[in-house]
Specification:
The chain contains 6 helices and no strands. By secondary structure, it is an all-alpha fold.
Length: 176
């Protein structure tokens, strides 16, 4: 969300890029939540049981591709679909990341690690919105979203090489 989020500049997309007004903005704002909600229900029936690291990094990459598609789209329907996919991919990565934090943190540190994780996640959303606004002022709204999406894809690709244990993680069970 630090690089790939476009929520702060959705009003610009609704007005200037997609020309859909306030009703369209409402749908754009709801689309990621719809994707996340639907995916959370699907994950209750079919949880990630194998290749968790690969699924995590792939979900981040899908989030980046969906954000890129949203950024270059001039079609309202395609933009909505891209945001739904981004929300779904983000939900998958959140479930895996939160599970790994809980499973792999030693018992005596779990509260502190969870608190730091929560602060980082909360702050990353607002910092991402700030980043989107600043880059939109420099590059325009489309440029801002495209640069953020490319940054997200770069991170997903880099993490595969930088953290091979994460990329190779198979199951979401305690490794201790």
């Amino acid at each position: 969300m630090l690089f790939g989020g476009a929520a702060a500049i959705l009003p610009i997309f609704a007005r200037d890029v997609l020309h859909v007004g306030s009703w369209g903005l409402g749908l754009l704002r709801a689309a990621p939540a719809a994707g996340a909600f639907t995916t959370s229900i699907v994950l209750t029936r079919w949880p990630v049981t194998r290749r968790a690291g690969r699924v995590l990094l792939s979900a981040v990459a899908v989030y980046g591709v969906a954000t890129l598609a949203f950024g270059v789209s001039t079609s309202f329907v395609l933009s909505l679909a891209a945001l739904v996919v981004a929300g779904a991919a983000d939900m998958i990565s959140v479930v895996i990341r939160q599970s790994l934090v809980q499973l792999d943190t030693p018992d005596e540190m779990r509260g502190r690690v969870s608190a730091v994780n929560s602060v980082f996640i909360g702050a990353s959303n607002q910092l991402g919105e700030f980043e989107s606004g600043v880059t939109a002022a420099w590059l325009g709204p489309v440029g801002s979203v495209v640069v953020g999406a490319l940054g997200t894809l770069l991170i997903a690709a880099s993490w595969r090489g930088l953290f091979p244990a994460l990329a190779g993680r198979d199951r979401l069970t305690s490794q201790r």
